[in-house]
Amino acid sequence: MSEPLIPQQLRSLIPLNALSDQQWRELRSQLVPQPLLAGQLLFRREDHARVTWYLLSGELLLRDADGVETRLEAGSEASCHPVSPTLPRLHEALALRDCSLLSIDSAMLARQLTWGSTHQDLMLELSLTGDSEWLETLLASPLLARVPPANVRSMLERLRQVELPAGSQVMGEGEAGDCCYFLQSGRAEVIRGAGSEQQLLAELDVGACFGEEALLGDCPRNASVTLLEDSVLQRLDREDFLELLKAPVVDEVSFGEAVRMLGSGGQWLDVRLQEEYERAHAPQALNMPLHLLRLKARLLNGGGTYLCYCDSGKRSASAVFMLSQLGFRAYALRDGLDALPALQRDALISETGSGYLARSGGRIERSR
Length: 368
Prior knowledge:
The chain is an alpha+beta fold. Helix content is 28%, strand content 27%. The protein is built from eleven helices and 22 strands. The protein has helices at 21-27, 106-126, 132-139, 149-158, 212-217, 238-249, 255-263, 274-279, 293-296, 314-325, 342-348, and strands at residues 34-36, 41-43, 51-57, 59-63, 69-73, 92-95, 99-105, 160-164, 169-171, 179-185, 188-192, 199-204, 209-210, 224-227, 231-237, 252-253, 267-270, 286-287, 305-309, 329-333, 356-359, 363-366. Strand 21 (356-359) and strand 22 form a beta hairpin. The mean pLDDT is 87. Residues 143-245 form the Cyclic nucleotide-binding domain.
C-alpha cells in the first residue's frame, strides 16, 4: 500500500490549501494515493458517490452528456481542482494513461472547510475579549474540530469561570460527576489511588478538558485532579456537555460497520480492565484500560483507525472522547458487547490470555 501523502505534497490542491495543520492530521488516513490503470473508469456520469477526487499523475478523459470530451492532465491548472465535483456527476471519467488519484470523503472535507472558516470568525470575535490566547489553543484542539460551529458558540456562552489556587483539588476520585472543566490557565495533574497505590495518570496543560469520563459513563469520578499552579478553569455543566459535545464527538458504529473498518486496517481497542481482557477478548485486540488510556495512547499510530469496545458501551464512549482530544480517529461499538447476540459475542470475544501490546510508533506484538 502506498504511504500517506504529506501536506506539502498537496498544497496546490484547491480547496485543500485552505486547511490548517490540525485539519490535515484529521484527514491523514485518507491521504493515500490510489492507482487507476489506463482504460479503467473512475466513475460514470450520474454517479452519486460523495467522494472528492484529485488527479495526482497521469491523464483522464472527461466526457459529458453531449459527448463533448475534455482531457485532464496531472500538473495542469485544472488538475488543482476536484475532478467533476458536481453531484450527480456531469461527466464520465476514463483513464487515458496510468493514473494516481486522491479520494477524500466529501462530507468530511466540507466539515473541515466549514470549521476552518468559522474558527477564523470566532477568533476575530473573541480577540476583543482579551481571552483569545487560551481560546485559540482550545479551538485548535482535535476535539473541537469535530464539533459543529454552532455547538462551539453555545458552549462558550455556557462556560462559567472558576479561579482556584495551587494545591486545590478540583475533583476527587469516587465523587459523583456533575460537570467537566477546561483549563484556561495553569497546570493540573490527574492521580488515581492513594498512598503507596497512588499513580500519576497525566499532567494537563492549557486547553485540556477533564472530568468528562464520569459524564459519559454516568459513573463516579475515576481519578482526582489537583492544581499544580494557581489556575483559571471554565466549568461546563453535565447537561450542556452531553448536548453540545458528546453527540458530535462520540461516533458509534454497529458490529457490521466495525467489521468493515477492520477489513480496511482498523484496530480493536479493548478498554476494559486487564482482568476482563485476559478472560476473553477480540482477536488481536489491544488492551488499553480506560483509566490508563491517557498514558498508553502515545503508543498508538496517529494515522490509525481505532474501534473501542467494552461491555455496556459507556467506557468505550469515554475512550473515543479522550482519543478525539488527542487527535486520534476512534469509534465506539454501539451499546457494547452486551448488545450483541450471544453467538456473535462469543465468536468475537474468542481469545484468552495476555494478548497483544502496542509499542512506540503503533507497532503491535503478541505479549505471550
